[in-house]
Write a structure and sequence with these properties.
about 20% strand; TIM Barrel; about 210 residues; alpha/beta; eight-stranded parallel β-barrel
């Protein structure tokens, strides 16, 4: 089955709704510029309500290394997700497995990116929208993804319960990542939309 991450969780009930629907991971946004931002204390509380075998992913955007270390001390997530201009050396310094998010646009050499971030657990591919770092609800041209990237692909960017089946059939990613596509408002998830999204993923995997 394609793995599922529900990102931008800010409430315990949404973390539990994601887990009960069958999500494999939740994303906690430790980036103050996001409307889905949570503090280290809030993140720790959300991680404590998760049942077994549901992973936590901490999202950062161009954070100072000391800030990442401070948050990890309070909320030790299972994976780090770097969504800015972080270098490979930066990403690997924390002793925690990481994902590198890339905002895809024409002319981008994803094969070279995979070589640069060769020790990442996966590349998270999102839509490029000028002036933002994700969470826009915009899709991108999935044909820009090379057939044989040497790292697992986590597909993001504008996924919804309506289009996730088609996205999986087109790309065959290791995982899909959704945030705004399962919300009733920014940072507030909709349990019915989460369940519909998971159903869409399972339908594509049949």
């Amino acid at each position: 089955m394609t793995a599922i991450k529900i990102c931008g969780i800010t409430r315990a009930e949404d973390a539990l709704a994601a887990a009960h629907a069958g999500a494999h991971a939740i994303g906690l946004v430790f980036y103050a510029g996001s409307p889905r931002h949570v503090s280290a204390t809030q993140g720790a509380v959300l991680m404590r309500v998760l049942p077994p075998f549901v992973s936590s992913v901490g999202l950062f955007v161009n954070a100072q290394a000391g800030e990442v270390a401070r948050i990890l001390a309070a909320a030790r997530v299972d994976l780090l997700q770097f969504h800015g201009d972080e270098t490979p050396a930066y990403c690997r310094q924390f002793g925690v497995p990481y994902l590198k998010a890339l905002r895809v646009r024409p002319g981008m050499d994803l094969l070279q990116c995979a070589r640069d971030y060769h020790d990442a657990k996966a590349l998270l591919l999102d839509a490029f929208v000028e002036g933002t770092h994700g969470g826009t609800g915009a899709t991108f041209d999935w044909a820009l993804i090379p057939q044989k990237l040497p790292l697992p692909v986590i597909l993001s960017g504008g996924l919804t319960p309506t289009n996730v089946s088609a996205a999986i059939r087109a790309v065959r990613p290791w995982a899909v990542d959704v945030s705004s596509g399962v919300e009733q408002a920014k940072g507030i998830k909709d349990a019915a939309k989460i369940a519909a999204f998971v159903t869409g993923v399972r339908n594509a995997d049949v």
